[in-house]
Amino acid sequence: MKKLALLFLFVCTNILYSQKITDTITSQKLNEDREIFIGLPPSYDKNPSQKYPILLLLDGDFLFNPFQGALSYGYYWDDLPEVIIIGISQNKNNERETDCTVEEATGLPSEKGELFFEFIGMELIPYIQKKYRTAPFKLIAGLDTTAAFSNFYLYKENPVFDAYISMSPELTTGMEEQIPERLATIEKPVFYYHSSADGDVKKMRKRIQALDELAKKITKPTLSYKFDDFKGASHYSLVLNSIPSALYHIFSVYQPISTTEFQEKIVTLPSGYVDYLAKKYELLEKTFSMKLTIRLNDFKAIEAAILKNKAYAEFDQLAQLARKNYPKSMLADYHMAQLYEKTGDTKKAIKTYQSAFQKEEIGDLTKDMMLERADELKGQVKNKKDEVIEETPPTDTPVETPPTDTPVEEKKTE
């Protein structure tokens, strides 16, 4: 309930202060103009070289603000990345129903539904990619009718979208069997999220659960699957539960190292703590095309794992990673100084802490701290020398036995 209240607060704030652009795209497929809403990330103008994932919202009229609010909240805490949000308006002239027209027998798009399907893939996405700086990663989301429609992109040999947020989908004919089949077949990485609730429409809920029963049996590394069945929620309130859950699931690798991740995945490793950190950010770049500077808190987490497991040799690797990410800071020297200190090379540790003093401060690492560490080690060295002097016993010069000139008397023979 607390999370829901926070999300509601951010939604309201976002409506007032977020950048939301209304645009019109002329569609040759639909032979009409369509209104779309565009939400650009806060850093879009500040970072001209940065590219951003696309989140396409069907039912953009009422899903745009909740999604933008959740993303703004997550980005504020550095839990979610910035994305370009595209919402399609579908509230005029019964567009929502006609856009999603399907053939009842086959359950596939037909008439305007087929044209709308092509409009998204062949006109809208290229239009956005040409006009804005977009990364290859694309998400699509919808509710009931539009959620089911979004699943049709899974039927393509090479799906347009990489992630699907299907909230209480009103599944078309055969879809509960066909979606798991496609999820098991698609070779490229796919994120699939869907949800229902105990207060959901019963006939829809039963088929959604049947889809889950088949989908959760799929075991393949390229599929990231999650199903939420919310308690105490209705068909409409489940949306505000689903949005943050779906986003945090899809972008889990983006999030900083949490206490749970540290305790369950990192500190339990026998070795390779720095490799874990490097691979985490390599996966982020590979999956979402996001090249991020490794967070300072993530460096601290790996430092803690190294110290806890006494894997001091890994400080060398960590220092190399620090030098690459924060070349002007004292972070790399700090890690090297720890290596020398923990392995008993006190003289090198002192010199390296002094070297760190000359670099830029970062986080809670300060020049005063580096000098204090160096002075502390100098004090330890001095104390050891004093102890050696005090404990060395005085050396007594041995007294030689003086030679005697008195001859030994021989025994007289009688």
Jot down its keywords.
414 residues, alpha/beta, Rossmann fold, Serine Threonine Protein Phosphatase 5, Tetratricopeptide repeat, elongated, disordered C terminus
What does this entry look like structurally?
The protein folds into 2 domains: 2-254, Rossmann fold, CATH 3.40.50; 259-389, Tetratricopeptide repeat domain (Serine Threonine Protein Phosphatase 5, Tetratricopeptide repeat, Alpha Horseshoe), CATH 1.25.40.10. The chain is 48% helix and 15% strand. It has helices spanning 2-17, 60-76, 95-99, 112-131, 145-150, 175-185, 202-215, 238-250, 259-266, 273-288, 296-308, 314-325, 331-342, 346-357, 367-391, and strands at 20-27, 32-39, 52-57, 84-88, 134-143, 163-167, 190-199, 223-234. An 8-stranded mixed beta sheet has the order 1-2-4-3-5-6-7-8, with helices on both faces. The termini are far apart. Mean pLDDT is 90; it is low at 9-17 and 404-414. Keywords: Hydrolase. This is Alpha/beta hydrolase-fold protein. Residues 377-387 have a biased composition (Basic and acidic residues). One of its GO terms (molecular function) is hydrolase activity.
List the helices and strands and how they pair.
Elements: H1 2-17, E1 20-27, E2 32-39, E3 52-57, H2 60-76, E4 84-88, H3 95-99, H4 112-131, E5 134-143, H5 145-150, E6 163-167, H6 175-185, E7 190-199, H7 202-215, E8 223-234, H8 238-250, H9 259-266, H10 273-288, H11 296-308, H12 314-325, H13 331-342, H14 346-357, H15 367-391
Compact summary:
The protein is an alpha/beta fold and about 425 residues long. It contains 15 helices and 8 strands. A hairpin with a 4-residue loop joins strand 1 and strand 2 (about 30-40).
